[in-house]
């Protein structure tokens, strides 16, 4: 049996940084990343046989937990029929229909293989549909690693403290405007100056790449009003929140608070693939008709609509659509957040938390942050100590202050109780 340290040393010889996605390297928190051998339900086991309660869930997709029987059966059957065809399948239609059935703002979708690909394609489509060049994003929101969107992004870039990425020429991002999240006055000023040039505003409605930060209702209300008034497409990046915070995704949460609310386009990933590489972007029929082969906006993908991935996604969506699923998941997630903040309060440690559906976050601070700048001012060193304290006690949280956490339907009351008990001990560090 090789240890995690041995595997990490071996990996660093052949893979940059020893990982295939930066946050996995543990650089933000220090120490050696755990190399996972297997997972089942709410648990993972590393190369040394250590068991962890998993609150990453493959960064969101595993809403049912690992190895759900219905999903395994669907994937096995699909794999036996063929891995990939490069031709249309009925299952692609079924998955598109399943997404549209739960998200009223979406009339058509295009399936792709990653959230980055979906976000990049939605951006191109917005520009093609409007004939405009400028786009707006918000500091701390991450929409994948397409060049035009790597400007003051969150996620891995926030982890390492870089405001942008090397290799992105200034002229590529000259049309990208970056605003502060939840700042209505700044939003109004940007539209006043650039509204006629804007193709779209892309936003994480609940930002999961600066931990867990909600767009306020007044901010979202004004954003929708301004986009409508200026003919700008409002694009919801629901790669993380889609089918995770509610069956109708985050936009259904806002629709319940803002009468008539809906975005113009949406980007999905993670849950709709059930752990397989699959994502999608969608919108109104008028906008989507601008895509090739119908329109002039080109987008293609060899593995788009992959038959095994669509089987995995369909099986997942079928399970989460069952009555009471999200009520139970939301209650379990809330009990975790409440438990963590309660033991922190008992320990005299300032901690705040929030959750929606099966997504949660917490900060070592006195109040919930409203934007990236405030998130950056929370107690990072205490988080790092807490992370390792929890890891040592068999609880696997995201290895960075700037990432949200995820609860699955497989997590039990006992798992939550064990996590809270571990936190009570870890907070003593």
TL;DR of this structure?
Helices cover 38% and strands 15% of the residues. About 3% of the residues have low confidence.
- Strand fraction equals 15-25%
By secondary-structure content and strand pairing, the structural class works out as alpha/beta
Helix content: 25-40%
Order of helices and strands: HEEEHHEHEHEHEEEHEHEEHHHEEHHEEH
| Overall pLDDT | 94
Extended strand count? 16
Shape: globular
Major beta sheet, strand line-up: 4-12-11-10-7-5-6
CA-based gyration radius: 21 Å
Query: Distance N terminus to C terminus?
Result: 31 Å
Sheet having the most strands: 7 strands, mixed
Count of helices?
Answer: 14
Low-confidence stretches: 153-163
What would you say this structure looks like, in words?
With 429 residues, this protein is of the alpha/beta class. The chain has 14 helices and 16 strands. The protein has helices spanning 4-14, 69-81, 90-102, 115-130, 155-160, 184-194, 217-230, 249-255, 285-288, 307-320, 325-346, 372-376, 380-392, 413-426, and strands at 36-40, 43-46, 51-54, 108-112, 134-138, 176-179, 198-203, 206-207, 213-214, 233-238, 265-268, 279-283, 352-356, 359-363, 395-396, 405-406. Strands 4-12-11-10-7-5-6 form a 7-stranded mixed beta sheet, with helices on both faces. A 4-stranded mixed beta sheet has the order 1-2-3-15. Strands 13-14-16 form a 3-stranded antiparallel beta sheet, covered by helices on one side. A hairpin with a 4-residue loop joins strand 2 (43-46) and strand 3. Helix 3 runs parallel beside helix 10 (307-320), helix 11 runs parallel beside helix 14 and helix 13 (380-392) packs across helix 14 (413-426). It is globular and about 55 Å long. Mean pLDDT is 94; it is low at 153-163.
């Amino acid at each position: 049996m090789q240890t995690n340290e041995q595997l990490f040393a071996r990996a660093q010889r052949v893979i940059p940084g020893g990982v295939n996605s930066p946050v996995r390297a543990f650089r933000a928190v220090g120490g050696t990343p755990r190399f996972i051998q297997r997972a089942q339900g709410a648990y993972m086991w590393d190369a040394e046989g250590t068991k962890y309660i998993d609150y990453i869930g493959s960064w969101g997709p595993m809403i049912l937990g690992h190895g759900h029987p219905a999903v395994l059966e669907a994937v096995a059957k699909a794999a036996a029929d063929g891995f990939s065809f490069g031709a249309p399948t009925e299952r692609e239609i079924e998955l598109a229909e399943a997404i549209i059935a739960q998200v009223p703002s979406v009339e058509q979708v295009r399936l792709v293989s990653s959230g980055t690909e979906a976000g990049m394609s939605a951006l191109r489509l917005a520009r093609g549909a409007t004939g405009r060049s400028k786009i707006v994003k918000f500091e701390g929101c991450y929409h994948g690693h397409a060049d035009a969107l790597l400007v003051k992004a969150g996620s891995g870039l926030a982890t390492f403290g870089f405001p942008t990425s090397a290799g992105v020429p200034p002229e590529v991002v000259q049309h990208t405007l970056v605003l502060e999240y939840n700042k209505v006055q700044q939003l109004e000023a940007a539209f006043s100056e650039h509204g006629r040039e804007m193709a779209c505003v892309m936003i994480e409605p609940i930002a999961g790449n600066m931990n867990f930060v909600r767009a306020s209702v007044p901010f979202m209300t004004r954003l929708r009003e301004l986009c409508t008034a200026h003919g700008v497409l409002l694009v919801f990046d629901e790669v993380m929140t889609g089918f995770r915070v509610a069956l109708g995704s985050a936009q259904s949460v806002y629709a319940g608070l803002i009468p008539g609310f809906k975005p113009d386009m949406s980007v999905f990933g993670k849950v709709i693939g059930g752990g397989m590489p699959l994502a999608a972007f969608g919108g109104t029929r008028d906008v989507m008709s601008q895509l090739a082969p119908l329109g002039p906006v080109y987008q293609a993908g060899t593995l788009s609509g992959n038959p095994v991935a669509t089987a995995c996604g369909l099986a997942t969506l079928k399970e989460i659509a069952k009555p009471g699923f999200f009520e139970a998941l939301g209650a379990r997630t809330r009990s975790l957040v409440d438990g963590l903040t309660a033991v922190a309060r008992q320990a005299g440690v300032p901690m705040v938390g929030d959750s929606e559906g099966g997504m949660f976050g917490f900060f070592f601070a006195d109040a919930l942050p409203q934007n990236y700048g405030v998130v950056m001012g929370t107690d990072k060193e205490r988080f790092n100590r807490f992370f390792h304290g929890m890891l040592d006690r068999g609880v696997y949280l995201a290895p960075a202050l700037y990432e949200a956490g995820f609860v699955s339907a497989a997590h039990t009351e006992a798992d939550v109780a064990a996590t809270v008990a571990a936190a009570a001990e870890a907070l003593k560090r």
